Amino acid sequence: MSIMSLDYWLQWQVAICAVIFIIPTVVALRLIISKRRRRMNEQNIIKSTDLWIPCWRNLHPIWLLCFRASAFLAMVFLLYQTVANLGFFVFLFYTQWTFALVGIYFALGTIISARGCWLYTRNPLSQPGERDKFLKKAVEENSSEQQLGLWENSMLIMYQVCAGAVMLTDIVFWCLLLPFMTGENFKLTLLIGLMHSVNAVFLLLDSVLSNLQFTWFGFTYFILWSCSYVVFQWSLHVCCLSWWPYPFLELNTPWAPLWYFGMALVHIPCYGLYGLLIRAKDRIFSRLFPQTFLRSSY
């Protein structure tokens, strides 16, 4: 594969595109560093039980565990089929980055749910009200268990990154790429269709079952995720690649800054859409099932 010449990188639009993703990266990093200084306040809001206790009073945590394990296995199978058919070349695409991240999220969620089920079985609950007593007792008697550790924090961050990334991936594919990328080099197959749909379906189902909190601060991690992909692509093109997996990443056009700016802006509605779905879940289910649904706290 040929590499880009120096003249390619000295074009005026390259500098503008660089600024477009460097500024959000710097802002996101500063916000994250500032947030870490107030970490203790955050842990008073988010509890470790939120990561494995379902938001339905009569639903045993083992059902959430089974769902997460099944979703993980299904995503591993689809990713394996994709790599087997197309090769590791597929990891040049943002879709596979996001799909793999969602798979890791479900793997981590399975582990944390399994640990939660073990804690739950040590306190067998037969009456609906006993579960609330169990959670209250856990907060009062074992506050260290309620604090988020490395794995819990990683899962929560992945959840919020995946929320925005699956919306971005699927919306861009179905609404932007598919209508215009036709011909011999691009054909919609069942596998490609599943890769651009089950990621969002599984994550939304997990949100419907779980009590995970969706915070707007998670948008900063979503920004870092997408910016990391752009840095990855630019690094490859500096070293060994001349082909762009997405046409809107091409820099050899005066329209490049508009494309990059447009893709930066679309992150806001994609992340916001998932947030609206979570709020709609809380509002609708709390009205339809007031006795069994546990509304998330924000």
From TrEMBL:
<keyword id="KW-1133">Transmembrane helix</keyword>
<protein>
    <recommendedName>
        <fullName>Transmembrane protein</fullName>
    </recommendedName>
</protein>
<feature type="transmembrane region" description="Helical">
    <location>
        <begin position="12"/>
        <end position="33"/>
    </location>
</feature>
<feature type="transmembrane region" description="Helical">
    <location>
        <begin position="221"/>
        <end position="246"/>
    </location>
</feature>
<feature type="transmembrane region" description="Helical">
    <location>
        <begin position="86"/>
        <end position="108"/>
    </location>
</feature>
<keyword id="KW-0472">Membrane</keyword>
<feature type="transmembrane region" description="Helical">
    <location>
        <begin position="156"/>
        <end position="182"/>
    </location>
</feature>
<feature type="transmembrane region" description="Helical">
    <location>
        <begin position="258"/>
        <end position="277"/>
    </location>
</feature>
<dbReference type="GO" id="GO:0016020">
    <property type="term" value="C:membrane"/>
</dbReference>
<feature type="transmembrane region" description="Helical">
    <location>
        <begin position="188"/>
        <end position="209"/>
    </location>
</feature>
<keyword id="KW-0812">Transmembrane</keyword>
